[in-house]
Design a protein that fits this description.
The chain is of the alpha/beta class and about 375 residues long. It has two domains: about 15-35 and about 285-380, Aspartate Aminotransferase, domain 1; about 50-285, Type I PLP-dependent aspartate aminotransferase-like (Major domain) (Aspartate Aminotransferase, domain 2), CATH 3.40.640.10. It is about 35% helix and about 20% strand. It contains twelve helices and 17 strands. It is globular, with a radius of gyration of 21 Å. It binds pyridoxal-5'-phosphate. Pyridoxal-5'-phosphate (PLP) binds near residues 96, 99, 122 and 179.
């Protein structure tokens, strides 16, 4: 009997160690891990430089609070702002907290309260970030949400035009809906969102919690669109597994986050920042980013070719190494069958298989995964074209 609240349906695998894209369980079985801690271990398990940075910091200093100067935190903030359109950073401990901070900052800076987000979005589990999440199953049973959230169909320009007004504080959006089925924003929707924000003086909050930190082949996914965010939220890949979140914001917002207005006891502590600095040193490298793009393009191309052969595949979507395979049937049984063959992948909605390999994944590991996925999909297909 487990003493844990059963908030997760567990797979019955007990990992005891990991290296790169591989996980080893208690019985010694090795798995190819295309879950990466749910888009967290972007540099793979036990990356030597991240491990070393943490080990070095463990013996120096763990935590002092934000009443003190923290050199590592300044360094992370400088790197993130130098490499984005933002000018300031605030550190917290998770994606939900980063989005919570974004909602607060948007309300305070605009003096307005209405937030527009999208159906099938996912922004987190706290009351505020859950209220921004456009999924009924996430809200169920928790009573009244925060007021003044509106969920529009994603990529629907007309719906956005109709709904917008002067009283909207912010639009909160993912560049690729992750939990909602790996659905990329269309380029024209991106342009539309930005122009609407300018027209109505509302802030654009881009939730890069899953798409950020190299996942799509650029440090942030918004860089691949005509999309200038006012606020960016980050977590997942930022610490490669060390819990950390961040909000990045433009210069115009700095007056609204002054002493006493927002905070986090743990946020940005030296241990977390040591991990993040090591992660950023790797992920801001242009040739590394290029390799992610190439691997992603290769895998997507192979999967599209497979979809031409198999009627089981409805659509292949994604950018970089954030890839969704929409299937005709419910994918749960296929994912379970892949687990039996020692490949770990995720589900995103009933019919979408989601691949999130660590960004350091090797070519032969991609080939191996493709072969396994192809076999399982073929076994499930009613028609092989
Ligand atoms: C995972 C996720 C979150 C929530 O992050 P937590 O660290 O679990 O709070 C928010 N937004 C997106 C897009 C996510 O994928």
């Amino acid at each position: 009997m487990s003493a844990l609240f059963p908030t997760y349906a567990r797979w019955g695998i007990h990992p005891v160690k990991g290296q790169g894209a591989e996980l080893v369980d208690a019985s010694g079985t090795t798995y190819l891990d295309f879950v990466a801690g749910i888009a967290v271990c972007n540099l793979g398990h036990c990356h030597p430089k991240v491990n070393q940075a943490l080990k070095d910091q463990v013996d120096k200093l763990w935590h002092v609070s934000n009443l003190f100067e923290i050199e590592q935190q300044e360094k992370v903030a400088k790197c993130l702002t130098d490499n984005s359109v933002a000018d300031y950073a605030f550190f917290c401990n998770s994606g939900a907290e980063a989005n919570e901070a974004a909602i607060k900052l948007a309300r305070k800076a605009t003096g307005k309260h209405k937030i527009v987000s999208f159906q099938k979005s996912f922004h987190g589990r706290t009351l505020g970030s859950m209220s921004a999440t456009g999924q009924e199953k996430v809200h169920e049973g928790y009573g009244p949400l925060l007021p003044e959230f509106t969920y529009l169909p994603f990529n629907d320009e007309e719906a956005l035009t109709k709904t917008m007004s002067e009283d909207v504080a912010a639009i909160m959006v993912e560049v690729i809906q992750g939990e909602g089925g790996v659905v990329p924003m269309t380029p024209s929707f991106a342009r539309h969102i930005r122009s609407i924000c300018d027209k109505y003086n509302c802030l654009l909050i881009i939730d890069e919690v899953q798409t950020g930190i190299g996942r799509t082949g650029t440090l942030f996914a918004y860089e691949q669109y005509d999309l200038v965010p006012d606020i960016i939220t980050l977590a997942k890949g930022l610490g490669n597994g060390f819990p950390v979140g961040a909000l990045l914001g433009q210069e115009s917002l700095v007056d609204y986050f002054q002493p006493g207005s927002h905070g986090s006891t743990f946020g940005g502590n030296p241990l977390a920042m040591a991990a993040v600095n090591a992660v950023l040193e790797e992920v801001t490298n242009d040739s590394f980013l290029q390799s992610i793009k190439e691997k992603g393009e290769w895998l997507i191309k192979q999967l599209i070719e497979l979809s031409n052969e198999l009627d089981e595949i409805v659509e292949v979507r994604g950018i970089g190494l954030m890839i969704g395979i929409e299937c005709k049937h419910e994918v749960g049984p296929m994912i379970a069958s892949l687990r039996e063959k020692h490949l770990l992948v995720l589900q995103a909605g009933p019919n979408v298989m989601r691949l999130l390999p660590p960004l350091i994944v090797k070519e032969e590991q991609l080939k191996q995964a493709l072969q396994l996925i192809s076999n399982v999909l073929k076994a499930n297909a009613t028609v092989v074209k």
